[in-house]
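Let us work through a complete example step by step.
Step 1: write down the sequence.
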Amino acid sequence: MAKIQFLQLPVPPPSYYAATGNVPLAAASLASCLASKEDPVTGITPHVVSPEDTDSLGDLALIDRVVKEGPDFLGLSLYLWNTERSLYIAKEVKKRSPETKILIGGPEVNEDNPYVLGEEGYDIAVSGEAEHSFRNLMRSLLSNSSLDGLENVAYRKENGKLTSFGKPVPANFPLTDFPSPYTTGHLKVDPRRSTYLETVRGCKSQCTYCFYPKSSQNLRTLDIPETMKLISDLKEKGAKELVFLDPTFNHRPGFENFLDAITEINADGQMSMFAELRSEGVTPKLATKLRKAGFTRVELGLQSVNEETLKRVKRYGSPHKVAEVAKMLAGEGIELLLDLIIGLPGDKPEDVERGIHFFLEHGLGEWVQAFPLSILPGTAMRKDAEKEGLFFMPTPPYRIIETPTFSSRDLTESLFFAEDLLERRLDEFPRPFLCNAAANKNDRIDLVLGEIKNPLFKKNLNQGESEFSDWSGSRHHSVWFHTENFSKDLSRILGFIENRISAEPFCTIDFVIPLVSIPKSQEIEKIVSVLESKRQSYLSRTLAHRGENLQHRLVFVFDGNHRELRNWRKIEMESTSFLIYEIVSTNKIQSLDPSLEAFYLIEGDEFQTKDFEFLKQNMDPEAVTFSSRKWEEKWSMEVLGYGEL
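Step 2: predict the structure and record it as tokens.
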């Protein structure tokens, strides 16, 4: 019996304790489609790597696991946020287990994505909505048949060259053809996570920046009885939050009856729900029905306030209708996500400003999320990019770099201007992981360089230098360098940093240096230069416009009693290349000055309620972190609001 293992890597989070919506629905759907009742694919056993493992395992651990388990086939689901890491793991697995056939699929796998098609390490690529193509492919592989001419499939020949894709065939199979992965057991319901589900595939809209129209323009729905059967089953299994991945939730035929059926199942309000809507057609009656059904959050895309731009990108719609429906939903107590895209063809910087003011004037500013345009593979916009004069990153996140009406500087300044108007940051803050070491975790390593006499360094030393090169870290981990002579040990620190990034290039790593004296600026620059040279993935590039690195962070910590270091911190407070945290014991929390824009590492396990409340009420929540794992997690969930979606 052959074995196939599916690996779908999650969105890399901005924080150790941030939930990422890590639900491998695509991978699990492929696993379950092999087991259709009427025509199962026999001779193969599928297994999906669990979210608990992909949440925590670093690059080395994931590679070791796949190689150790030795599947005949490894399937990787590629998305914007995981493509580079997935392809790296494929390449490393192939080196160690050349007999494993590696398959890739997902929205990143397209004939117009030279980045993915130019990479090595995989054997077969499948484009488009995959269940129908995938079953044909697996039957051919299991019978050692030729792959020539297989629809939507490209494969690597003996000379290493990838063939062109077979005839592209849009998906048209009914959603009832294959069982839900929740019913086959390939995907578990976890009450601590969101539960993702699709009840519709295909999209009637033709937005040129979106991938869905390429997948299928015909709506294929899971009918109401089948959907209610699935939702009832999910509820019985303990689902608390349902996330509908339907491209446009309210385009489903019989939408009002659909909401009534959900309301009946969720009459006790046990489940909360999220979906993306088009504002057209949403009435006060439908808004009330959404609330009664259990929808606590809804996403509406304005995208641009310029109606000519909306026509140009085939989004259409009316900004005033979006505002009307947004207020309607907010009046029902439903939280909103209101989208503005920066850099759409035809838009100018003043359109972004007008869009923000538009929402503010309607009292909707708290819900706005503005973000730069990405020119995604498989979209009409990518096809026409050269003709439209659109320049974009060739690798994820494929961000727009320049348009005929937006210079590179305009794009960045428009984002910052939007933040100024909304009085908040619009993207994720790269929160470091500074918690104490734990015996059963591989998320912190302490390297003691030289003889350490300072009592500040007598705690949490869990690893020696000699063990460093073979160490396998978690997906997000920290490396602490303990030195009393920063200048003397700098070359060794630089070597260790390069070693760690080379060993696990796609892990999120915080490089932490406790200070006993003021470091020289040119020495800091040497470390920053190494980190900048390693910006090689989606995660490290997402905040490059800020000068911040979301993947590899340099963090200095110092004893708050050290006056010289406190004065140095004031000088360096505006730096985006590194972070400086003052260590504060729990008994000094009440003495903190909320008006001082500084970062604090609260040290200690025991908190009085009044001290925790002081931090919640007075301090910038992003500026406070904890050495205690319990309190860092509590702060992340309760104060920062890191939850599932």
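Step 3: interpret the result. The chain has a mean pLDDT of 92.
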